[in-house]
User: Fold these one by one.
Assistant:
Number 1:
Amino acid sequence: MQCPKCHAPMHTYNRNGVQIEQCSGCRGIFLDYGELESLTRLESQWQQQVPPAPPAPQAYPSAPAPAWGAPHHGGHHGGHHGHHKGGFGRMLFSS
Amino acid sequence: MTASVLLSALTATARGAAHPGQGPCACPAAGAVLADRADGTVVRHGDIVAKAHAPGTDPAELNARLAAAAALPGILLPPLTPVAADLHDRLVTFWPHGSPVDPDAPERAPWEDAATLLARLHAVPTAQLPGPLPPMRGPAKAALAVARLLAAGPHAASAPILRAWSGLPPWARAETPGGHVSALCHGDLHLGQLVRRPAGTGPWLLIDVDDLGTGDPAWDLARPAAWFACGLLPAQEWTRFLTAYQEAGGAPSLQGDPWPALDAPARALTVQTAALAVAKAVAAGRVLDEAEEALVDACDRMAAVPAELAHGVAK
């Protein structure tokens, strides 16, 4: 999906079982119905019990990128296939 | 000559090159059209592929490029005939058939093989090639894409693309020769430019010599670099490609952090791909898809980071 504010592509993340979409351009976050409640519930659980330290995110060594590049999010890439969004599959094969 | 006349003439030519006689044949893919675009028509008949090159292709330059391919058989697919033939008003070349990268499985793309072939191509001493090669046509193709965008009619994405183009150094816009580095370059690398020969089992080879020539080797890495920078190609695949290139002895300018050398070509290929996407979208009356929007967004961000200042080198 595209960001309603800046129209950049939005990437889906899983945060403690809650799916959120974050814009790769303005970093805005989109929540589906019920997701805010889920996050609030998780937050209250967090406050009630001191949780163990979260494991360091499993990150591929980040590759240098130019300043004009799209914001890359650690841990998002790799590990799954069929990730070529939009018409990128076609773009890979054309001049 | 209309496109359909060319196609039937080319089909007959491919058949004639594959075998004599006009009777029925059992050749696989007899008369299969592999590509039919303004910049080239490609027809297969059995083990033979015939390509009609773009109108206006210079015969001396094409023959020099063919000679280079013939001289580098482990890197480029060698042509079947040493010089281009005339077919009406077009130049035609003949090639053995090879199997391409599966377009339905780009995640299995042979990034390491592509990178290794490029590293070997870039290391070829150009003085040892049969004839003087023209410049590689990468920047010229970017300029043609921008010309197509200008001719396509108004579109909201044109302004950021043209602004990014105007910020590029003159050599990357094909306005001055790119004399800063001179290696043998493919000039138009993408996943459609690799085949296995023999089909399915043989080693990967580079095809399509139309843009081959001398220039900045960074151009050949710049399309995957642009895809990565635009957030389209996962960092993992880009890193595999870049690392394999560096480990195979790629150009010195691309060792270590390659971005000082890649910045201008990757910008130019982002502009080129975005310009062609918008021109096609205008012609088809469709909106840009997600990947195309990502290219336009990158063009938009380029204005904030001038190319000349990014690395302190005005090439």
Number 2:
Amino acid sequence: MNLNILWFILVAVIILGWSVMDGFDYGVGGLLNFIAKNDEEKRYVINAIGPVWDGNQVWLILGGGAVFAAFPLVYASIFSGFYLAMMLVVWLIIFRAVSFEFRSKVESAKWRNFWDADITVTGLGIALLLGVAIANILMGIPLNKEHIDYQSLFSLLNIFGLVGGLISLSMFLMHGSTYLIMKTEGDVQQRARAFAKGFAVAFIIVTLLFLIISPIFAPRLLGNSFGVIGDLVPVIMLIGAIGVILTAGSSSDIKPFAYSIVAIIGAVASLAVGIFPNIVPSSINTKYSLNIYNSASNHLTLLVMLIATIIGLPLVLIYAIYAYKKFGLKVKMDDSSY
Amino acid sequence: MDSTALLLARIQFGMTAFFHFLYPPLTIGLGLLLVITEGIYVFTKDQEYLRVTRFFAKLFAINFVVGVASGIVMEFQFGTNWAQYSSFVGAIFGSPLAIEGLFAFFMESIFVGVMLLGWNRLSAKAHWISTILVAFGSTLSGVWILVANSWMQTPAGYKIGSNGIPKMTNFWHMVFNPYFPSEFTHVIMGAWEYSAFFMAGVAAWFLIKNNKDMVMRKALKVAVIVGVIVACGQIIVGDIGAREVVKYQPTKLAMMEALWHSQKYAPETLFALPNNATESNGPQIGIPGMLSMLSYMNPSAKVMGLNAAIRYINKKDSKLDHTKLTLAMFPPVWIVFWSFHIMMYFGFYFALVMLIALYLLLKDKLFDSPKMLKLLWFSTFLPLIAIELGWFTTEIGRQPFTVYGLLTTVDSVSKNVNVLDLGLSVVMFVLIYITLASFAVYLFKRELKERSQGKDELAGESAKAAN
């Protein structure tokens, strides 16, 4: 295995880390106004992610940095090509990042309603846009000879992109619901169980729809580099979601979340398998596509970054485990909570 | 390249970086001060130091989230707006950003949750360690961001590959590029300086209302002791940094000092009205020989003027394919000159203020001197202005390059982002940043007001509504 393949896998692992760790933050945010009935419940729900959302968000920063360093041409082409979509995501993230702290500072109902709406909208928006962007990449974007894409924001909003957006939206909402099953008790937990089931069903439906229309919009997915085994990877998504449906109503608080992680692993693995060895296929000419070789940094950069990752990622896991342990499995409010 | 699009991209980058840079210095510096105040509490069990820590941690939290929110765009916009730059130097420039995320930002962001929401869940010592990790993580974050920035000033550890694109040849040479040690020290000390003034200013505000406020007396004491050390040290560090500019960035130095033509006994110009069109300064006041002295420890040494520096860079980079530099490509010299000089004058002012404050503190008169307290309150945010001016100096002074001597700004911008999209994003950022800053100021004032009305520092964010 060479460094380029290894870095392709590492970027997929970082995307997975982000989807699993930050995905439930967006899901919980998106659910806020629907799952919590009053301020007390809303604070309860927010504090399920309160102490950890900021650390989770760093996965996104890490992902950006890793792509920048390992595959600079991908970073440059995608980010400039998806200009307004990227800006939209940035604005949503900005307003999400300040919301929890700002909300807690003032007790007026008006102030809090504003931030509740903000938390819900930003959570839903980011979850949706992620899938739209990824589906478009899978379909191929009009990269020219210089690997530059001149399309507009609106060309991203095609049927395939929207179905992809619904996958990530339902996936993060399912993930957020199962996270709340794990972190909460009582009424909120009961509602989370119902939501988890509903979003898992929705996730299965849109995933199947996506697979059915793929041959029309992204025929390359049929000819993936791994043959029949590759074709079967999306089944992991369905297994995870079915697991969520079967366990959401059970007495287990942790199993639905574990199955939701399985579904996300399936989604990221499907994406990686479907696109390898390309990273950004060109819809103009396959020769203009960016792949793991023509977009990558030189050997030394990849090596240095690999060493950094091998040392750094275990540290991140240690910090995260410490933080999650300190705040316990179930949310307990005290006077330092949001 | 469309010049309007380039201008808008530059406005957007300048604005977003300016706005972002308003916040991290306080995160870094106040982090250190909280480590000190909480440390005193842990070792002496003096409750008043706990109160100082708890109160300033609330202000820290407001500042921190705006810093995080505004920082996200910084990492994305190299790709969105500066795609040519990203493809050209990503193999080198991207690595410090990724390493920053992995080694610094994770530590800072995970433990900031533990620190701000974990007061009742951790032992005093364990909590203090969390605070230390937040401060350490944010400082380490500064390290890697400044590795990236200083590399743009004095690129090192690379060679131009066969495809014309630089590739990394030595990671540690890239990290410890010539400019890094002095730039890092100067910026981190700027962060500490601002934070000392911030804590001093806020404490002074409370003491003006009630000088028997024992908690704020302690805050002011810590702030003044830290402040005087940092403010005096900064003058020396700034001088060392400027000498690095002499060595590596002659065009920047010439603009900082408004020196048009090379000369012996070059003056340290204190006042001038530099004019690019006439290549002269109009009325000017200077100390003869002082710039030569500061640059080379020799009053008769010849210092390169802007015109000679441009010729020098053109000759030095003759093998590289960036366009030949002309004076017309350079920014107005007065911007760099005045940014640098006002920052420098502020630096002396800060040292003076802190020295007077220390004198009064030692004489036991500081808390009874409303004039001095007012001066401190008035000075709360002045170091922030100095920090931004320093950043203007180093970034505008680097123009017309993004990577000094290697890549020009014109050749860095995204080709595929049009004026309409850019115009829209610039307007949105203006609106968003005004909104965020207003919220931050509102919440900051609210915390001050609530405490002055008797709110207990040890009570949490929403004590009344807690379950």
